[in-house]
């Protein structure tokens, strides 16, 4: 099963958990043993919360991500990493970094 995310949502930005739930509803209509191809053609941004919602439910299912830009590829990798706050005491700069 191939899911073209842009065709489903009609926008190039994926920000909300509710949007992921809409996509999951479509995916869940198909047999669980069928691989899911998530096609990010036309998508320029996907938030961490959107990807976390989508991929956490797909966790037990065989899926592949295709046509994602480098920013989306990065967010897919960090979707399950909890950010930690790092304080650089010399400059008092606060920076969020993945652990």
Task: Describe the protein's architecture and organization.
The strands form three sheets. The chain has a three-stranded parallel beta sheet with strand order 1-3-5. 35% of the residues lie in helices and 27% in strands. By secondary structure, it is an alpha/beta fold. It has helices at 5-9, 17-27, 48-57, 70-78, and strands spanning 2-4, 13-14, 36-39, 45-46, 63-66, 83-88, 93-98. The radius of gyration is 16 Å and the shape is globular. The mean pLDDT is 84.
Total strand count, please? Answer: 7
Describe the biggest sheet? 3 strands, parallel
Helix proportion: 25-40%
Strand content: 25-35%
Supply the CATH class. Alpha Beta
What count of domains describes the coordinates?
1
Low-pLDDT segments:
none
Strand ordering within the main sheet? 1-3-5
**Rg from C-alpha positions?**
16 Å
Instruction: Indicate the CATH architecture.
Output: 2-Layer Sandwich
Please state the overall shape, judged from the principal axes of the Cα atoms.
globular
**Mean pLDDT, all residues:** 84
Structural descriptors:
alpha/beta; Transcription Regulator spoIIAA; three-stranded parallel beta sheet; two-stranded parallel sheet; 4 helices; 7 strands; globular
């Amino acid at each position: 099963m191939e899911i073209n995310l842009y065709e489903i949502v009609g926008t190039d930005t994926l920000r909300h958990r509710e949007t992921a739930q809409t996509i999951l509803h479509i995916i869940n209509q198909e047999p669980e043993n069928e691989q899911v191809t998530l096609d990010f053609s036309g998508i320029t941004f996907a938030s961490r919360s959107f990807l976390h919602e989508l991929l956490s439910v797909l966790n037990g299912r065989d899926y592949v991500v295709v046509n994602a830009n480098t920013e989306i590829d990065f967010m897919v990798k960090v979707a399950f990493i909890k950010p930690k706050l790092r304080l650089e005491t010399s400059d008092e700069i606060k920076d969020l970094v993945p652990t």
